[in-house]
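Lecture 7 notes: from sequence to structure.

We start with a single chain of 87 residues. Read the sequence below before looking at the structure.
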Amino acid sequence: MAKEEKVEKLKKEKKVKKETKKKKERKNLWASFRVFCAGVKSEFTKVHWTSKKDLVRYSVATIFFMLFSAVFFYVIDVLFALVQSFI
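Now the structure, written as tokens:
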């Protein structure tokens, strides 16, 4: 009987420890979230945003490069088709 009582007592102690651990985790989770948000806010202020002028310049360069690539590969395709038609 004494052994069973000790086992039950240990089980109850473990259960209480688990419950207190869960409460601590919740508190730590909330604190961690607040620290994360503070970090995001501080990093957000360090971001260097491009100006409107630079944004337009980069957009035009990208569109030009895409059009140039499309025309280049179209010409290559037409040349290969022309060479294949002669063979």
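Residues 1-47 form one domain. Keep this in mind for problem set 3.
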